[in-house]
Fold this sequence. Notes:
The complex is a heterodimer. Chain A is mainly α. Chain A has helices spanning 2-17, 20-28, 42-61, 71-80, 85-112, 121-143, 148-161, 168-176, 183-215, 221-225, 236-261, 284-295, 305-321, 323-326, 336-357; strands at 30-32, 233-235, 299-300, 303-304. The longest helix of chain A has 33 residues, at 183-215. The relative contact order of chain A is 0.13. Chain B is an alpha+beta fold. Chain B is built from 1 helix and 11 strands, in the order H-E-E-E-E-E-E-E-E-E-E-E. The mean pLDDT of chain B is 91. Chain B has 2 domains: 1-33; 42-143, Rieske Iron-sulfur Protein (3-layer Sandwich). Chains A and B meet through helix 7 and helix 8 of A and strand 2 of B. The complex binds protoporphyrin IX containing FE (HEM) and FE2/S2 (inorganic) cluster. Protoporphyrin IX containing FE is lined by residues 40, 42-44, 46-47, 50, 103, 106-107, 110, 115-116, 120, 123-124, 127-128, 130-131, 134, 205, 208, 212, 217-218 of chain A. Chain B: Residues 43-137 form the Rieske domain.
Amino acid sequence: MLSDTGQKLYHWLDERFNLTPLIDYMQHKQVPVHKHSVWYYMGGVALFLFIVQVCSGILLLFYYQPGVDSSHESVRFIMTKVNFGWLVRSVHSWSANLMVFFVFVHMFSTFFTRAYQKPRELTWMTGFILLVLAMTFGFSGYLLPWDELAFFATKVGTDIAGAVPLIGEAMKIVLRGGDDVTGATLSRFYAIHVAMIPALFTVILGLHLLFVQRQGMHEPEAFKKLKPEQKKMIPFFPNFVLRDVLLWLIILNILLFLAVLFPWELGPKADPFVSAPEGIRPEWYFMFMFQFLKMLPAHIGFMEGEVAGILFFTLGGLVWLLTPLWAFKKRGKVDIMLLCGLLVIAFILVMTVIGYVY
Amino acid sequence: MKRNRFLNIILGGGTLAWLGSIFYPVFSFLNPPKRPEANVHSVKAGPADKLAVNSGEIIKFGRRPVLLIRMDTGEVRAFSATCTHLDCIVQYRQDSKQIWCACHNGYYDLRGRNISGPPPRPLDVYPVNIVNNEIIVSKPKQMG
Ligand code: HEM
Ligand code: FES
């Protein structure tokens, strides 16, 4: 009965939109199975967490009121008065952090399996843009509760942007909506967080996924060398998709576990006429940059230390974005790219640890 | 051939002008209009004997935070409370009798000079007068 209606509905749609080739396409798309296959799921996990962000974020919008006199109050209201408000907020915060984490994991896994090579250059580049956008999501969202830590972290973060030569001061003023971090900054960050970045992110993510669907999964070196009959494959639809969904369920459970057992806290309200408290720090995924800037001497050659640091990260980001264009081929036993990747990870880890220990 | 190039230049220039006519207003819109800062020349900061010896307090000087300190000698001094490093708000430390920024552990002495940590410049000094036991903080001269 039910499947009967389903069949009818399918035929109705198929007649009008010619769906059969699409379904065929997805059934014919094959996903390789090998010992590095787990990494194929990391982008999917990031995608799932993004969907969680969109849903929980829209819920929060029903109660959140941006403004110096209302932001902190409305978040407190969500946490104490609204049914399950604490849960929705906690999920949004935890999922944001997990999403950034999994985007990093996904990026490094595609780096180490060399999935960025021809023909997937643009998949890599759109992916990197997604990482930058995800971090912008985090930075702009951090300020919205208007608590003390976020207030000073935003002052520091936007002041760093102001150190950029030539355009820095203008950038800072546009970001802050004036000379200082005020209610004007809050309005801007709100617009950026709930409208601008979501729209951009959705477009870039659409491209990224389109590329992946058109090109199919990248096969690692060892797998590519196998004879066709030795290559183990599973169809993308339904086999791979079902495994994806199973993993999403597991991730959802972990997320809820974290959100319930470690509810996200809300600090005291920001006050521009109170001294900065101890322990001002950015979110963990900015820590490595922040710590590195902090460790630079006041002057490097003819430049201010901060300026040199910003230059370093801008160039580093650019080089990383353009990886497909300069990547070294593997020659015999020496794998320069493996070394590069490990070096970058080591740098990020060491700086992050120092940042938290001191 | 010549006509072709001519057309290309016209078309290209037209596209550029069109893009400019979209983006120029957008970027100008995002650049916030200057709000005239209330021209505060001095503020009254309460009775001098209310501020305890060896303590500090943040007061509002127009839209800017200013740190008021009463030293062991009883003398009152005032400094811009905005750290010259990355914009945090500093505080007076009773234990070391210095000005301290918690953000990155920067220290200034009681003349506002940056003495350790990342701050690159001294804090602006605001002249203080005490008239009939009332603390009066005025704008530093070099700030125009
Ligand atoms: C929120 C951000 C992101 C989402 C939601 C996302 C999603 C996905 C998904 C679902 C896939 C297919 C499954 C997989 O290979 O894991 C994929 C593939 C890919 N992604 Fe992402 N991604 C994101 C960010 C990134 C970043 C930051 C990079 C690298 C700079 C990147 C590079 C790639 C590459 C090269 C592939 C092709 C992998 C292959 O075919 O083996 N992605 N992405
Ligand atoms: S902002 Fe004061 S030391 Fe960095």
